[in-house]
What does this fold into?
Amino acid sequence: MVRIRFRLPLAVAALVWVVVPLAASVSFDVDSRPVYEAETHRFTSYADILEPAVGAVGLVRAESVRRGEASDNELFDELFRRFHDNDGDNDGDNDGENDSNGNSEETEPPRPEGDDNRGRPIPHGIGSGVLISSDGLMLTNNHVISSARGRLADTVRVTLEELGDFEARVIGRDRRTDIALLKLEGENFPHLRMADSDLLRIGDIVFAVGNPLGLGQTSTMGIVSATGRTDLGLLGAGSFEDFIQTDAAINRGNSGGALVDAAGRLIGINTAIFSRSGGNIGIGFAVPINMARQIARELLDHGEVRRGFLGVSIRNLDTALRGDPAGVSGVVVERADTDLPAGEAGIRRGDIILAIDGHRVADVNELRFRIAGYRPGARVEVRYLRDGGEETATVELSSLDPPLSAAVSPRSLPGIELMPVGGEGDAGGDDSEGLRIVRVERDSPYAALLDEGAVILEVNDRKVSSQAEVAEALRPRASNTLRVRVNGDTGYVTLEPR
It folds into this structure.
């Protein structure tokens, strides 16, 4: 017999001696039971949990009477074509459920030749709504009951799966959050209990309930993908976005429907999707019910949402560009006119706002939301940093909306609402000057020339940054030339006297 001997180097032998005891001492925490036997809730069906939503969520249809002019559908078709012609390959298109113009979700049916449908109701919106009280209060989206130009529908009808058809009365609507409140006549309506949406966590199971594509009552399941989604630009300039993101399937027609948690409670109002095709790709957004409930209360009590206005142009701290103090959290005041609340209270350009009524503000969005939560006339304590030292000022807030509305006069732009770029109500774009167009009324004489989101930089070669400067620069009963920036491109628009 031949014997072969192997001699391991001393270093290798030592390595073996060390590794073997270490491997033997390691243990892993392993649960070898199948998931249905694990220590967790066992569900084979969510039918009982979702049953209340079946009766509380309805189909919402909006109709308007054609008045011998381009229909809302024709106007939207043109806007839709222009949007896609310039869309390119940018990600994050919102060409599915909603856009900043509040698009229709149903197209006008074909008309016989020679029949223009004048004086007849035509559908221009279809979506969903969710009952929140036994006496028939229903939440939905503003864009479901509004035309492409934001005009309220003439008739809103609701179909409930178990109770039939109802004509709904519009209590009020809020463009800035895309929430509307309807009222159905009757009593003992099925409705959903609300949860506290501030307690949502990523990974919570959720269900989207609505009427996608007009097919009828549909429920889809997913999870909370994210919370606090802001600056998405889904609702247009001057809006307040604080969305719940979910991968529960949301499609056209789900707008205004319910986002429900695993306990069957209402946690959000489905509002928008990101999609290049118009169909669901797992990125949907809902308005948190805490925000929607606050809006509903304001609409119910006042018919409109009243928001406080601080009166400043602001930006986030940027230590790299401006040498702002390290370790400071807040927002920088770019402008504080002395005839507006903050300026009247002594706040100046360059001040760094740290807190509102003791609540720290880390960025522009947080300050906007904080101030918008107060009503006009409220007095708030603003803590700010100036020249390295902290100071406080008591500011009496005015109303957010009046400063944004152009005065209707021969020297203004009728039907056009403007706001200073960078102001606390401005949520769009990277512009640093001019006035942003936040709304174009359908009956404005300049509706075909000026688009929402565009920024007016100059009027007749004069730079403008306020309503007063626009009015002063416009020439009455004469042509006016506006220098305008749209999607990063700058050009000129000539407005003829109307």
